[in-house]
Amino acid sequence: MDIFLVEAMVNGLLLGGVFALLALGLNLIFGVIDVVWIAYTELMMIGMYAMFWLYAKYHWPFLAAAAAAIAVVAVLGLLTHFLIIGPILDAPPINQLLATGGLLFFLQSFATFLFSTEFRNIGLRLPTLEVGGMFISVARLLAFGVSLVGVGCLYAFLKRTYWGLAIRAIAQDRQIVGLMGIDARLAYGLTSAIGGALAGLAGCLLVLQYDVHPFIGLSFGPILFMICVLGGLGNMLGGLAAAFIVSEIIAVSGFYVSIDLSYVLAFLIFIGLMFWRPRGVFTR
Amino acid sequence: MKRKLAVWLAAIVGLGALPFLGTPVYLLHIAVQILLWGTVYTAWALMGRFGMMSLGHGGFLGIGAYVPTLLWNYYGITPWIGIPLGVALAVLVAVAIGFPCFRLRVVGHYFALVTLALSEVTERGIVAARDITGGSLGLTPNTVSGTSLFALQFPDKRYFFLITLAVWLVGLWVWHRIDGSMTRLSVTASAEEDAAAAVGINVTREKLKVLMVSAALTSLGGSMLAQYLMYLNPGTLSGVMVTLQMLFAAVVGGMYTALGPTVGSALTIILTESLRILFGTRFIGAANTIYGILLIVFTIFMPVGIWGCVVRRLERRPAAPSFRRS
């Protein structure tokens, strides 16, 4: 096999890790609160900016900056839930979509307003490994590894802790959990904070590979939503699988044709799959 | 009813006479944009009002803008043929997306995310085909000298204003027609699709009809915008950002009333222009920041929008007592 094709596939796999993380966050929120945050990747963008300012401008240590960035986005997630989703929790889906669409608009434009459209680089260059003639960037490897750890931690949290159980219970039946003595408001808040933190983590990892600019959310958002729909909204395992499948489709077709066309191809495959399984390929 | 018609006729005649009363060219330019975007926003609201949140309208707009222009630039085919072809393609795409969605009950969040892919694929497709479309640098239709009905190019804004007015009225007429079949659709609109199906409404067909009409109107609006602006850019005439702009204008203006989306269009364009004149490019992104906040605030506190509130207030006004509803 062509070594460059293998390299493209490895890179696709590594990118899939970050998408898996984002898909997990979005699916968690949808599963529990029944809302899609259209502005999810814009929250990630804020995380990237937080990283940029703290690390590159104020010279915080990397890990401290990352922790702060994750915390910032987690708080943003909380605010998103209590300020925007809370008042329209029981409204028709269109209102919730419109409101988070407004948030997307706001975050993106406000970032343009504050930081201008300049592309900013964090200025941290991680080395590139050469493995059997392939070049693999450490930043991607790190992103992949940390993403998997994040996914594992979330899994353990959901399976092993009381609040994890509560969140899963709400995802199953939101009417009945009140009777079981679970404070739904708290569980929603927790879910939103975790969702935000995952977006923040993804931002910290991606800022090592990409320049940050106000429109970066738009280059990840549509693919992320596609992954979530393919996997089935709220279906976490489906989302994980779909994240890797879509990244591979993009990476491999990007190898054969251009990157732009590979996205087009991925979307066309997606629309085709929708004919077959409109509620997600992995939905029973 | 008769009085309403008379008011409408007077308004139309008044608007039609506007360009010939010595209105400054700049104001005409603003008015044309308000009406053209108003048409597009009206098309979006046709779906939005029935709870169908389409994020794919940027795709229909892009098809409408690029198809006639590409045909004109490469084959010299007049927009009179190109525009209907663009509309036809948009409707075809709408059916391709809408039919499986509606038949398999893809609603709410799912529908929004599936249609989002359409906006994205159109924008990326236009960028990817940069050898033909000019990519993100944009595309300029070949100009002919002076006014040409054949090329649908009118350097004189007065004539273009009249055409725009006609397009906009077509949009309102479509709205009115859909409004007439409201009873069937409003049942469909609510989440109780099963109830609608139970009383013998073919939910798939009704929804598909609205989607097709809406896509056609959006495409027409896109074609006219391209003819007017004489510059096409995938970022401004297709894609996700334009779609969000549609949501904003329709919601803030009021997506449940015929004139609401146009009011939203007027609001956005006037706000954008004033910010541009007052601050130049110093506060890039300021207008959209305000739109974002307004979209959230309106969705939460005033989902019927500005014009919706006005209409509501007017209707609540104590009229002469009467037992018959006019």
Number of domains of chain B: 1
- Quick check: average pLDDT of chain A? 86
Category by helix and strand content of chain A: mainly alpha
Q: Roughly what fraction of the amino acids of chain A lie in strands?
A: under 5%
Helix content of chain B: over 70%
How many distinct domains of chain A? 1
Q: Descriptors for this entry?
A:
heterodimer, A: 284 residues, mainly alpha, 3% strand, B: 326 residues, ABC transporter involved in vitamin B12 uptake, BtuC, globular
Structure write-up:
The complex is a heterodimer of chains A (284) and B (326). With 284 residues, chain A is mostly helical. Helices cover 73% and strands 3% of the residues of chain A. Chain A has one domain. In chain A, helix 2 runs antiparallel to helix 3 and helix 2 crosses helix 7. Chain A is globular and about 60 Å long. Chain B is mainly alpha-helical and 326 residues long. Chain B is built from 15 helices and no strands.
Question: What can be said about this structure in brief?
Answer:
The complex is a heterodimer of chains A (284) and B (326). Chain A has helices spanning 3-33, 40-57, 62-85, 93-115, 138-160, 162-172, 184-206, 216-231, 236-256, 259-276, and strands at 128-131, 134-137.
Helix and strand arrangement:
The complex is a heterodimer of chains A (284) and B (326).
Chain A: H1 3-33, H2 40-57, H3 62-85, H4 93-115, E1 128-131, E2 134-137, H5 138-160, H6 162-172, H7 184-206, H8 216-231, H9 236-256, H10 259-276
Antiparallel strand pairs in A: 1-2
Helix pairs in contact in A: 1-5, 1-7, 1-8, 1-9, 2-3, 2-4, 2-7, 2-8, 3-7, 5-6, 5-7, 6-7, 8-9, 9-10
Chain B: H1 2-17, H2 25-48, H3 57-75, H4 79-103, H5 108-128, H6 130-133, H7 157-180, H8 182-189, H9 193-198, H10 203-229, H11 234-237, H12 240-253, H13 260-279, H14 286-301, H15 305-316
Helix pairs in contact in B: 2-7, 2-10, 2-12, 2-13, 3-4, 3-5, 3-10, 4-10, 7-10, 12-13, 12-14, 12-15, 13-14, 13-15
